[in-house]
Amino acid sequence: MSPRGRIGPALWAMIALNYSLVLGPILVVVVAAFSPTDFFVFPPPGLSLRWFRAFFELDNMRGAFLLSIQVACLAASIATVLGTFAAIHVGRRRGAGAGLLQSVFMAPLVFPTIILGLALLLVFRTVGIPVLPGIVLAHIVVGLPYCFRSVLTSFQSFDPALEEAAQSLRASPLQTFLRVTLPLIRPGVLTGWLFAFIVSFGELNTSLFLTGPGYVTLPIEIFSYLQFEGGQLVVAAASTVQVALIVVLVLAVERLVGLGRVVRG
Prior knowledge:
The chain is mostly helical and 265 residues long. It has one domain (50-264): MetI-like (MetI-like fold). 76% of the residues lie in helices and 0% in strands. The protein is built from 13 helices and no strands.
């Protein structure tokens, strides 16, 4: 490697600091979830699955976990479909109109989720949207920018001549999309779905304004448990389950399209 391309000690120190700040607290929570004690002790004196068993035995925790998975899957799937078609439409346009559309679809990343949740609450109450559809719609709005951007990145490296070749062979627009366009932008589509799922699965601020009786997601249930002394280790187990599910999804996407292509997407 040339001297210009070498990573100096200062940069290595910054990388190590960043990893420590990001992964350190997560590792502490994961290790604490296996503690056999009644209260938080780090490092734990032993290993036990009692808090994971307690997590799945609590009806409210188990119900919130299942609801979060259902909402995240539905919201991520709808956001991926909408984001894919929006990205293809924007990717085929040029000029100021395309830039304006990009700004519109990326706007949810600019506004704080608390303000977004309050605004959606006022709109949903005015229109009369029920609690569960309102939560799903809010998570779609939050996850849409990730789907849009990842698909747009894949589509911008797509060669339009391939679509023209398919159409010259008398393929219909739907056949062209399903057999040519979609397979080539698949890494971006899967990446968008993965990020939308992760964002929805951990979304708290927006859901706080929209939740109602019988519709409590796991992040809200975890937030509620943090208010009570002695519930920290159940929260640690719940957080570890969340992390484990996300890791499984990342590994599944890596098997489908390759982790390197996902990161580049």
